[in-house]
Specification:
The complex is a heterodimer of chains A (297) and B (326). With 297 residues, chain A is mainly α. Chain A has two domains: 2-52; 78-292, Orthogonal Bundle (MetI-like fold). Helix content of chain A is 72%, strand content 0%. Chain A has helices at residues 14-52, 57-60, 75-80, 87-118, 124-136, 139-152, 160-167, 172-183, 188-195, 200-211, 213-229, 232-237, 246-256, 262-294. In chain A, α4 packs antiparallel against α11 (213-229), α9 (188-195) packs antiparallel against α10 (200-211) and α13 packs antiparallel against α14 (262-294). The model of chain A is unreliable at 1-11 (pLDDT under 50). Chain B is globular and about 75 Å long. The model of chain B is unreliable at 1-25 (pLDDT under 50). Chain B has 13 helices and no strands. Helices cover 66% and strands 0% of the residues of chain B. Chain B has helices at residues 27-61, 81-88, 93-124, 129-142, 146-156, 161-167, 183-193, 196-208, 211-219, 224-252, 256-261, 275-285, 289-317. Chain B has 326 residues and is mostly helical. Chain B has a domain at 90-317: Orthogonal Bundle (MetI-like fold), CATH 1.10.3720.10. The chains are: A mainly alpha (297), B mainly alpha (326). At the A-B interface, α1, α4, α5, α6 and α7 of A face α1, α3, α4, α5 and α6 of B.
């Protein structure tokens, strides 16, 4: 590192400062322009998808632009009915999985986090290290035996393999996120409750949980987005078209329509992303805070 | 990363312990230990049943010829045959390893550079920062979806909109996703496009750098570039390390985009056959569960080794301002 002691000498350089001001103004404008351009490039694929869903099929590939000539909304009803069931059916399936996963994560991860952050028990350090280790464990390593296990007990083509693991806190990042959050809460509150005669269940439910609402919100939003987007495990466990969730149904567009109708596929892609977009708008504060503090995404 | 668990004295209600021995067996402590395990029980059951058991079970399976279609009686112990086959005669394994490594070695550094670069730009900017941050962050939430993978197909196929755009300038584009030389590249672009996640972490890290350091450096006459290399980078190195570990693990686990863009095949000519796709194929298309388990264990060991390398080299370049692991 350089020596960072402030030097006491300051030269007064008025004309030079003026020139520097002008130069920084130009530089700021250029930077702004660059940022706007970059933002447009970043959003282009999403915007183009939305615009293309309102174009007739034969126009989609010929028009890389984002300006619509006319509005062609018929892709939406066409896409909604294009698969075996109306698209709403898959949205409901996804919603069931998402709600189950959110409840599971909230309950099980907060309990584990309370134990790690506030209670003292033998082997805690070990369990905590193991918990951190499981964050790095790729699901692809355990998916084969897990599938065998769940198929033996007849859970394939049910939502249970997607929900039950969440009830058992297998999403360890959320445990970690909540541990970090609880550690930041003043211990005096627990102590006061304990002096008043509250046991651990009471302290957890009445003191800690109400205070960790921001961490719970972050968990809810991330679980929502990840589960809604999750393709791998839903592809593996849901093979019956009646049980398809949104990502699996959307993918089946490619197989089902003989000449893939891009317009209706894009229409349903837009529909499938609306919940994510809403979650982003509503929960942006928690999302940004959440990844900033723990680095999850 | 924060590994040190809190070891503050606990249980104020318990009477002070005799000085000779730590009061491991005092009723308060035992009660707390019990409560600890009660609160931990869902996680513990999950760890045993949904994580640890499958990991060990897959190790066992990797030495068998198990396929889910035939009954358990058909299961045979085949020793290291699966591993031998993978390393010597499997026509796809080494291709897939090369594809995966190429993808990781190019996409991850690009993504991290992009996220740090944009974070630096945004950090200086005051006006409209929230709007820009949202615009850059949003793709990282959408990018993993099937919908965006389909959009990528539409943009980067031979007749796609990217080529229509190029033709405006008289350029004849490649058939991108259908060209073995370019298909993986489109996956990398999709990955780099999602740089918003690490960017937000970098932005949070940049806020932690004390402004006095920059003031002092500029008083000393250090240029912007010098300040970047001598103040920003060292102060940010824990965050860089964190993002590097995270993105690497994340990068090796990509599946959705490769599966959707290649329509499940990993083609053209295995050019997008990333490792996870190969595991999926062996396990759930060919139903060779034993073989797939062997592939999965090789994957697990490789990821473990990479993590160890990161954490053991980290101490040489990661600078903690408080002098210890925070």
């Amino acid at each position: 590192m350089t020596n960072l002691d402030a030097s006491p000498i300051r030269r007064s350089t008025r004309p030079a400062a003026d020139r520097r001001d002008r130069r920084t103004a130009v530089r700021t404008a250029a930077k702004h322009l660059g940022l706007i351009l970059l933002a447009l490039i970043m959003l282009y694929p999403v915007l183009w998808m939305a615009v293309s869903s309102l174009r007739p099929n034969d126009e989609i590939f010929r028009s890389p632009g984002l300006v619509l000539d006319g509005l062609q909304a018929e892709n939406y009803p066409l896409g909604w009915e294009a698969l075996a069931s109306p698209f709403g059916h898959y949205m409901i399936n996804s919603a069931i999985v998402v709600v189950g996963a959110i409840i599971g994560n909230l309950v099980s991860c907060s309990m584990a986090a309370y134990a790690f952050a506030r209670l003292d028990f033998t082997g805690k350090r070990w369990w905590f290290a193991i918990m951190l280790g499981t964050i790095m464990l790729p699901i692809h390593v355990i998916i084969v035996p897990q599938y065998i296990m769940f198929s033996q007990i007849g859970w394939v083509n049910t939502f249970l393999p997607l929900i039950v693991p969440k009830m058992l806190a297998t999403d360890a990042f959320f445990v970690f996120l909540m541990v970090q959050f609880i550690r930041g809460l003043p211990r005096e509150l627990d102590e006061a409750a304990r002096i008043d005669g509250a046991g651990h269940p009471r302290i957890f439910l009445r003191v800690i949980l109400p205070l960790m609402v921001p961490a719970l919100a972050t968990t809810t939003i991330f679980t929502f987005i990840w589960t809604w987007n999750d393709f791998f495990s839903q592809l593996i466990y849901l093979t019956d078209p009646d049980m398809y969730t949104v990502p699996v149904a959307l993918r089946s567009f490619v197989d089902s329509t003989v000449a893939t109708s891009w317009g209706s596929m894009f229409a349903m892609s837009v529909v499938s992303l609306i919940p994510i977009f809403l979650a982003f708008l509503i929960g942006q504060r928690f999302l940004i805070k959440g990844i900033a503090t723990t680095g999850i995404k | 990363m924060v590994l040190a668990t809190a070891t503050r004295p606990q249980a104020a209600s318990t009477p002070p312990a005799p000085p000779r021995r730590r009061s491991r067996r005092s009723p308060g402590r035992r009660q707390e230990g019990l409560a600890g395990y009660v609160f931990l029980s869902p996680w513990l059951i999950g760890l045993m049943a949904v994580t640890a058991f499958p990991v060990l079970f897959s190790l066992y399976l990797s030495f068998t010829n198990y396929d889910i279609l035939s009954s358990w009686d058909m299961l045979e112990w085949v020793g290291t045959a699966n591993y031998e086959k993978i390393f010597t005669t499997d026509p796809i394994f080494w291709k897939s390893v090369r594809v995966t490594l190429t993808y990781a070695l190019i996409a991850i550094p690009l993504k991290l550079t992009a996220s740090l670069g944009v974070a630096l730009l945004l950090n200086r900017e005051r006006r409209g920062i929230g709007l820009f941050r949202s615009a850059f962050y949003l793709p990282s939430l959408l990018g993993g979806s099937v919908a965006l993978a389909l959009v990528w197909v539409a943009i980067f196929n031979g007749e796609g909109s990217f080529n229509s755009f190029l033709s405006l300038f008289g350029i004849q584009g490649e058939p991108w996703i259908n060209d073995p030389d370019w298909a993986l590249g489109t996956l990398m672009v999709l990955s780099v496009w999602q740089f918003g996640g690490p960017m937000v972490i970098f932005l949070a890290g940049l806020k932690q750098v004390p402004t006095e350091l920059y003031e002092a450096a500029s008083v000393d006459g250090a240029s912007r570039v010098r300040q970047f290399f001598h103040v920003t980078l060292p102060m940010l190195s824990p965050v860089i390390f964190f993002n590097l570990v995270l993105e690497t693990i994340h990068g090796f686990q990509g599946f959705t985009s490769a599966y959707v863009i290649s329509n499940g095949s990993g083609g053209p000519v295995y050019s997008t056959k990333i490792y996870t796709l190969m595991i999926y194929d062996k396990g759930f298309t060919d139903f060779q569960m034993g073989y797939a388990s062997a592939l999965a264990w090789i994957f697990l060991i490789a990821i473990g080794l990479i993590t160890v390398v990161f954490f053991s080299t980290g101490r040489f370049w990661v600078h903690y301002s408080d002098g210890g692991d925070s």
